[in-house]
């Protein structure tokens, strides 16, 4: 049932192009983005004046990615909250607040409690979920299913990419309802999303190189991950994968924060994974990241760079270069996450750990 793969996670990593295609399927009809499993009207979407994304773990990272897109497309304030923090604060919610609860399992206790809390405050709740009929969609006003298929590996992979795509559909539906994007722009954004399964397929071709790199990294004590803009949540996700699978100390940082503390951690031989923005799409940020990399390299770090193919400016600073296909900036997490998933799984395997069942973790966390 692992389809000839050594472990489920590898199978699920390879299924990501199909998972994405399934998430998107049927959501663009007659020139419009449709969220047809939802019970929110066009007017409800128009009335939204603030968005909260609440989730845990990788699902939370999918929300961090979506914030960049939804703010940009919809001109709406977006807060992304860890579900376990959200409900014990006093978040400011009312009936024009849209709470997007993202959960692969749909059973995560903290996210479920956040949904209940939001509904008590009369906010509208849209669940983004991978599991039909789970508790979170049952208690929400509306649901958008990701249709990524069952995920067996405890570490989330295809469900995470599907969550990003689903969150983007929510963003496009909001932009469409609010008129912050013209219909042809919404159509173009959707077409770009539809091109992602093939881009992710190309990103999978990094697999052999990353597996070999992973074997060489297996003895590292710690790994840092740096990114900016949408690359920052990707860095957090890469670090989470490595912690949970390889039991290594791994931290993700916003690259701009380096000088405000983390640079003190840099020492001879420390592997630092850097998620680069596009040299064309985000030239200013790209230049800043190149300068960060040269600084950490000068202090002896071993730089492992995930960059757009053909990025010649970063090449001299990359001790290891992982090239992913060029895609629009907001969609980069869908390709740049892929090698980081493989890296974590293969380091775990090299260290002799069970990739599909990491110690102390459960696939769905139904207690707080
Ligand atoms: C990480 C991972 C977890 C889950 C988190 C939320 O690889 O799998 O961090 O993302 O427990 O789970 P769901 O999405 O089921 O609510």
From TrEMBL:
One of its GO terms (cellular component) is cytosol. The keyword RNA-binding does not apply. The active site is at 363 (for fru-6p isomerization activity). It comes from the Bacteria. It is found in: Cytoplasm. It catalyses: D-fructose 6-phosphate + L-glutamine = D-glucosamine 6-phosphate + L-glutamate. Its main location: cytoplasm. Keywords: Aminotransferase, Cytoplasm, Glutamine amidotransferase, Repeat, Transferase. GO terms for biological process: carbohydrate metabolic process; fructose 6-phosphate metabolic process; protein N-linked glycosylation; UDP-N-acetylglucosamine metabolic process. Residues 41-180, 213-358 form the SIS domain. Its EC number is 2.6.1.16. One of its GO terms (molecular function) is carbohydrate derivative binding. Homodimer. Catalyzes the first step in hexosamine metabolism, converting fructose-6P into glucosamine-6P using glutamine as a nitrogen source. This is Glutamine--fructose-6-phosphate aminotransferase [isomerizing]. It comes from Saccharomonospora marina XMU15. The gene is glmS. The chain holds residues 255 to 622 of 622 of the full protein.
């Amino acid at each position: 049932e692992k389809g000839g793969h050594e472990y489920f996670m590898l199978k699920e990593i390879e299924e990501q192009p199909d998972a994405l295609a399934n998430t998107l399927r049927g959501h663009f009809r007659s020139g419009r983005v449709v969220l047809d499993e939802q019970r929110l009207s066009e007017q409800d979407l128009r009335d939204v004046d603030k968005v909260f994304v609440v989730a845990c773990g990788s699902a939370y990272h999918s929300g961090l990615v979506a914030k960049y897109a939804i703010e940009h497309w919809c001109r709406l304030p977006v807060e992304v909250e860890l579900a376990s923090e959200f409900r014990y604060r006093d978040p400011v919610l009312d009936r024009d607040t849209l709470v997007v609860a993202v959960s692969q399992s749909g059973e995560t206790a903290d996210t479920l409690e956040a949904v209940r809390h939001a509904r008590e405050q009369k906010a509208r709740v849209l669940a983004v979920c991978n599991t039909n009929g789970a508790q979170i969609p049952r208690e929400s006003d509306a649901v958008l299913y990701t249709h990524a298929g069952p995920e067996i590996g405890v570490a989330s992979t295809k469900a995470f990419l599907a969550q990003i795509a689903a969150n983007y559909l929510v963003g496009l539906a909001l932009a469409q309802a609010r008129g912050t994007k013209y219909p042809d722009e919404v159509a173009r954004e959707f077409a770009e999303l539809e091109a992602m399964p093939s881009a992710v397929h190309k990103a999978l071709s990094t697999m052999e190189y990353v597996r070999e790199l992973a074997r060489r990294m297996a003895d590292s004590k710690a790994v840092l991950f740096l990114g900016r803009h949408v690359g920052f949540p990707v860095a957090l996700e890469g670090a989470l994968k490595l912690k949970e699978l390889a039991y290594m100390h791994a931290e993700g940082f916003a690259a701009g924060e380096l000088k405000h503390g983390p640079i003190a951690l840099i020492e001879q031989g420390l592997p630092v994974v850097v998620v680069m923005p596009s040299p064309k799409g985000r030239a200013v940020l790209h230049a800043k990241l190149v300068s960060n990399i040269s600084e950490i390299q000068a202090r002896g770090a071993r730089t492992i760079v995930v960059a757009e193919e053909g990025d010649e400016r970063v090449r001299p600073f990359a001790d290891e270069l992982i090239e992913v296909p060029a895609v629009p900036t907001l969609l980069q997490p869908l390709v740049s996450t892929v090698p980081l998933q493989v890296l974590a799984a293969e380091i775990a395997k090299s260290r002799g750990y069970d990739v599909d069942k990491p110690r102390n973790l459960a696939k769905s966390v139904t207690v707080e």
